[in-house]
Every structure is written in structure tokens, then in C-alpha cells.
Amino acid sequence: MKINNSYLYTLITLSFAFIIGAINYxxxxxxxxxxxxxxxWLAISGLVVFGLRKKTLTTWILISMVVGAEIGNDFPAxxxxxxxxxxxxxxxxxxxxxxxxxxxxxxxxxGHSDLKQVGRMGWKSILYFExxxxxxxxxxxxxxxxSKAGVGIKLPIGVQEELPIVAPQSLNDIILxxxxxxxxxxxxxxxxxxxxxxxxxFGIALAMVSEKKRQPMLKAAESLSEVMFKFTNxxxxxxxxxxxxxxxxxxxxxxLGILVNLFHLLATLYTALIAFLLLVLLPIALIIKLxxxxxxxxxxxxxxxxFATTSSEAALPRAMEAMEKLGVPRKIVAFVMxxxxxxxxxxxxxxxxxxxxxxxxxxxxxxTIGQQLLMVFTLMLTSKGVAGVPRASLVILLGTxxxxxxxxxxxxxxxxxxxxxxxxxxxxNVIGNCLATVVIAKWEGEFNENxxxxxxxxxEV
Length: 461
Prior knowledge:
The radius of gyration is 23 Å and the shape is globular. The chain is built from 21 helices and no strands. Helix content is 78%, strand content 0%.
């Protein structure tokens, strides 16, 4: 097909599917199920033709999300079986994280031997993280108090979901969780913050030895980081399959109907997250005079991966590479982004404040403003440093609910749509951490405004 013909085919198939869908929705007349089915798959064929012409990874990831959703809707049993492909993708991504962080952090610290800058970036990052995540907590609090999505919720009959048993965390536990006792154990458990702490201390120690002994290790770390970026490129060839499989599984085992049943809660979260993006992150980007369109083009791929897989870790290697190409020095990307994965989870912190009040509303418990603020400040502490825990937000939510004497059963309702909520909050986590690297780079006066202006190679592997 010529380019014009391929675009025309895509336009025709999408238009046909839209018209059939509109007729079916408006009930102008009864559309046979098989006609509606054919129309949807014709539209998907049009998207595939479009993808063949574009030949970019971001395009194929977005198309695979549509294909995955359709497979999960039309062939749910098969869609559920595809989960293994998404797990393969996530496993391969997780193998990248520890060596990539170690290599980039060690080179960033020891390669420049500027230990004062490490300390400077540390306090600047923590200050920025705390301000932004605190605002996110309050936006979640305001949103759920306005929407009152939990009011009128009844205990569902025959709830059989099993929730993990969560032991309450003391301040000592939270502090101890930051520091590794065994780096191999930290890597195996995916404890990002512990890996970061070890890598920073290793980099500082390497910077303190003589030049003769520093160079061999520094060259090895530099080679390691370069190899891991190439390794990432190889794994990304599998990204559309892994992402599509993740969406197919989600839709297959949950169905699209759950969106209607719990629309109020979902709408509250999505509205609050959009408000956070527009009222907090966008003004920050404008204040630091960041080219927003260029930034959005850079983060399109890692955010789409995060949305489909509900895993911030899956997007981490690509996000680091994208920010470096945007103009953020590698030493800043390597320090700020992984640290942000423990201290700057904007979407997750907003969700936690919203979900906690939702539990109280569903249980019919009227919390005072003072109690709600106390809950927010508790979440401010407990939400740090648990990025490596599976379903970390659920674990924190259960711990918070238990510590405030709230019932657990409303969490079952949240659990039913947790993956759909996780898609949005994980995407905001990635956007927030990408922006944080630019903020710190600008603050340090090291952002390269003219780096890769067209971003031609960000969306291609």
C-alpha cells in the first residue's frame, strides 16, 4: 500500500467501527453481534496498517493496548492465559534495574568526584519530593470529600478475596527498610531504595580512592551501564507483546462492565490525578521553562508501558534513557529517578489519601478534619520506601486502615478495580519522576536545552 492508501484504509475502518458502535449505543436499530464484532476487528486491522507505516515503538505499544483490550473482551479465557507473556516482560525488565542503577550511580558519583554535588542533589531532591507528594495527598483528600464516592456503599455478598496480613510498621521499621543488610537479597527482592543507598555509598567510596585504583572499577561500571541500556533496547522489542498481554488479562478476568459498577470511585481518582497533573506538575514545568511538548514526546513510551503493565519498574530503564536524551545529565537521572521511586510516588500518595477516606465513608464513619489530617501525615511517612513490595499501595492502605481502627471490607471493593486504578496512579508516578529529574537538573544549572531537539530516536528501538 502507498502511504496515502494505508492512512485512508485506517480512517475508513475506524469510521465504520465508530458508526456501528454509535448506532448500537443509541439503539437506532438492533445491530447483530457478529457485525459489531467484525467492525471492531476491521478497525484494529486499520490500526495495524497505520502501525506498519509509522514503525515506532510507542505507536505499537498503544496499538497493542487496543488489541489486548479487544482480545480480553471477545476471548476472555484466552486473554487470561496471555498473562504469562506480560510476566515474562516484567521479569526481563526487573533483571535490568539493579545493574543499571548500580552502573549509572557509580559513574555519576565517582566519575566526577564531586561529593558536594551528591549531597546537594540529595537535599534538593528530598525537599522537592516532600512538597509535591504532600500536595498530592491533599488533592486526594479534597477530591474524595467532594465526590463522597464511598457514601452509600454496601458490604458485598459473598466476598471471598484474600487480602495479605499486614503488620503495623513503626518508625524504626521504616528507617531500617531504607538500608540494605545484604545487597544480593535487596536485588532479589527488588528493593530499589536499598540498591540506590548501596550504589551511592559504593560510588562515594570509589571516589575517595586513588586514581590508579579508581579507573578500572569506573570503566567497568561505565561499560556495565552502557550494556544495560543496550539490553533495554533488546527487551523493548518485546514490549508491545507484553503490554498487550497485560491489558488482555486485565479485561479478560475483570470484564469491561466493572467500569460501570464502580465508575464513581474510578472517576474520582482519575479526576484527582488529572487535576494534580494540570494544577501542580504543569505549573512546575512552566515555572522552570520546560518545553512541555518536547517533554511529553519524551515520556510517551515509558508512560504507556507503565499504564499497561501497572509497574513503575517496567518503565524505569526507558524513562531514564528518555530523560538523558531530553538533556538531563546521566549522573542526575541516575540519582534522582530511582530515589523518586521511593520518595516521589505522586500518583500512589494521592490514591492512598483518597482510598483511606473512601474506606471510612463506605463504613459510615465520619472522620473529623483533624483525624483526616492525621491520616494524611501518617501516609506521608508510611508511603516512603516500599516501591519494591508487590502491590505496595494495597499493603500501605491496609496498614493505615488497621492503625485507625477502620473496617477492612471496603478494601475488597477497591481490590476489585485496583488494577484499573493502578494504571492511572502508576502513570502519574512515572510522569512525576521524569519531571523531577528535569527540576533538579535545572536547579543545578546542568540541563542541556538543545539536546536532541527533535527527539527522533526516542520512540524507535
